[in-house]
UniProtKB/TrEMBL annotation:
Main location, first listed in the record: membrane
Family in the record: Belongs to the binding-protein-dependent transport system permease family.
Membrane-spanning intervals of the chain: 12-36, 61-90, 102-125, 155-178
Lineage start: Bacteria, Pseudomonadati, Pseudomonadota, Gammaproteobacteria, Enterobacterales
Pfam families xrefs: BPD_transp_1
Keywords of this entry: Cell inner membrane, Cell membrane, Membrane, Transmembrane, Transmembrane helix, Transport
Species of provenance: Enterobacter agglomerans (Erwinia herbicola)
InterPro entries: ABC_transporter_permease, MetI-like, MetI-like_sf
PANTHER family reported for this sequence: ABC TRANSPORTER PERMEASE PROTEIN, INNER MEMBRANE ABC TRANSPORTER PERMEASE PROTEIN YCJO
Any one Gene Ontology BP term: transmembrane transport
Protein name, as recorded: Inner membrane ABC transporter permease protein ycjO
Secretion signal, residue range per the UniProt entry: none
UniProt keyword Ion transport present: no
GO cellular component, one term: plasma membrane
Protein topology in the membrane: Multi-pass membrane protein
Length: 252
């Protein structure tokens, strides 16, 4: 039996548990149940067993979407974390507090913008006719590199992935800089006295000290890569198949 304190604690978390159950747990279980039926959304669902899953796994488009998901995960996860780590270490080694604050704000700005808005902006930047990227490449004498970035099956996915990298690396940078601020500065000072190089300090002090932040960044960016619908949908408008993605496959 719960004592009075236990019941009080339970009542504190009850609203959050109810919200979680109603808006997340129940829809998840309902979707799982519906996946074993044939249902058009209006009539009564008819149980169909695992036929929906067999049809999904036998669909070649599903495997294409899954592969694109894996590629996008690289741009959503590994590249932002890597760039954020290196830039964080560089800023702490070469910049003072005021410069770090300004740069941190500038790098974080893309993250506060809606992803769909960024998709529209970058679709304009990538435009082969009047987009600034191709215009600059032609102006500096590299017309062979001026491509239809979003209209090419080879470059469409990396082009969109780089937008995601640009979007998330500022978030990772701010997260890692916050992690460095909680670390004991005497560790780096002792490493300097021992004559450790910048690489040694990064690998043996900075990186191990940022493990909690790395786990958070990895978790959030992986989740974002699996939900990358808005950016892909906006940039793939009118070009079905170029960026076919897991969320788009569900949407279609």
């Amino acid at each position: 039996m719960l004592n009075l304190s236990g019941w009080r604690n339970f009542l504190y978390v009850l609203p959050a548990v109810l919200v979680y159950a109603v808006f997340l747990l129940f829809p998840l279980l309902a979707s799982l149940g519906i996946s074993f039926t044939e249902w058009d959304g209006t009539s009564l669902p008819v149980f169909s067993g695992v036929s929906n899953y067999l049809r999904m796994f036998s669909d070649p488009v599903f495997w294409i979407a899954l592969g694109n998901n894996a590629i996008l995960m690289l741009f959503y996860t590994l590249l932002p974390i890597g760039v954020g780590l290196l830039l964080c270490s560089f800023l702490y080694d070469t910049r003072n507090n005021s410069e770090r604050s300004v740069l941190r704000i500038l790098f974080f700005l893309p993250y506060i913008m809606p992803m769909a808005v960024l998709g529209v902006v970058w679709r304009w930047l990538y435009n082969p006719a009047f987009g600034p990227i191709d215009q600059i490449l032609r102006a500096i004498g590299l017309p062979q590199l001026a491509l239809s970035w979003l209209g090419d099956f080879t470059w469409a996915l990396p082009a969109v992935g780089l937008v995601a990298t640009w979007y998330f690396f500022g978030f990772c940078l701010v997260l890692f800089m916050a992690g460095l601020q909680r670390m004991d500065p005497s560790l780096l000072e002792a490493a300097d006295l021992d004559g450790s190089s910048r690489r040694q300090k990064f690998m043996r002090i900075t990186l191990p000290g940022l493990r909690p932040e790395l786990r958070i960044a990895l978790l959030l960016t992986v989740i974002a890569s699996l939900k990358a619908f808005d950016l892909v949908y906006v940039d793939d408008a009118g070009r079905p198949g170029h960026l076919h993605h897991g969320d788009q496959h569900l949407y279609v």
